[in-house]
TrEMBL record:
Manganese or magnesium. Binds 1 divalent metal ion per monomer in the absence of substrate. May bind a second metal ion after substrate binding. It is found in: Cytoplasm. Its cofactor is Mn(2+); Mg(2+). Pfam families: RNase_HII. It comes from the Bacteria. It comes from Shimia sagamensis. The keyword Cytoplasm applies. It catalyses: Endonucleolytic cleavage to 5'-phosphomonoester. This is Ribonuclease HII. InterPro entries: RNase_HII (IPR022898), RNase_HII/HIII (IPR001352), RNase_HII/HIII_dom (IPR024567), RNaseH-like_sf (IPR012337), RNaseH_sf (IPR036397). The gene is rnhB. Endonuclease that specifically degrades the RNA of RNA-DNA hybrids. Residues 22-211 form the RNase H type-2 domain. The keyword Metal-binding applies.
Amino acid sequence: MTKEKTAPDFSLENAAFARGIIRVAGVDEVGRGPLAGPVTAAAVVLDPNNIPDGLNDSKKLTAKRRDALTEEILKVADVCIAHATVEEIDEHNILRASHIAMERAVAGLLSPPDHLLIDGNLIPLGLRKNSEAIVKGDARSLSISAASIVAKTARDSIMMDLAQQFPGYGWETNAGYPSKKHKEALVKLGVTPHHRRSFRPVHNILYQAKN
């Protein structure tokens, strides 16, 4: 029986280098599940000779560790962070909006990558050339794990700022995810401009308010 890797490594990137590829970018997104806030993506091209220690799936790291790693990643890698807005989520659906954010992140890199390692099992429409979909990629590829850390840190910062403007929803701790406190606040305080109206709990409250 093959053991599941406990930490990401650089084997997928090295396999690409062995094929003559020069610039490999890891791509990941965060924020598909929340009821509020944007969906955020990051694209990261690591320097093979200067990879920060401790990269891992962002969900396995503390906020303090993610912040420290983000600072290191931004110093040594080519990084772009991009978002799709609540309006775009409601217009297109969350999957397409997350892909839009990924496409924007790749487009914003300082130099175009030659190959993409994309977390998940689907490749965004605009990134289908020279790309690999890597299931559980943030736990397998150091480039994808770096992207997951940077994206998570960026989105959490946005939600912290929004929590100051819209207190009571608990965004400073739940980041917009449908926690009990968040759902109770939706009923009590109502829907904000930053809530995703196409998501059922928000839609149901708006529908009830009209009737």
